[in-house]
Design goal:
By secondary structure, the protein is mainly α. It contains two helices and two strands. A two-stranded antiparallel ribbon has the order 1-2. The longest helix is centred in the C-terminal third of the chain and has 15 residues.
């Protein structure tokens, strides 16, 4: 995981266990962690900022549940 993907949107520093917005993978149950990791929403070994996780999860939901119709 690169440095930019771990930056906190508020303090513009690395989002880690010291940040209140950080989701530690150890705090998630195994099923949820595996599902989110398989979708690429959360890093199974590192964790992620909760705001970024919400944004990515909602974007994935919109993508999967939206159909586009093209007219020719």
């Amino acid at each position: 995981m690169d440095e930019n993907s771990r930056k906190c949107p508020f303090k513009n520093d690395i989002c880690d266990k010291t940040c209140a917005l950080f989701i530690n993978p150890e705090d998630l149950n195994e099923l949820l962690l595996n599902r989110l990791a398989s979708l690429g929403v959360v890093d199974r070994n590192y964790g992620m900022c909760s705001l970024k996780t919400l944004a990515m999860s909602n974007a994935r939901n919109i993508f999967e549940n939206t159909t586009t119709r093209r007219t020719h």
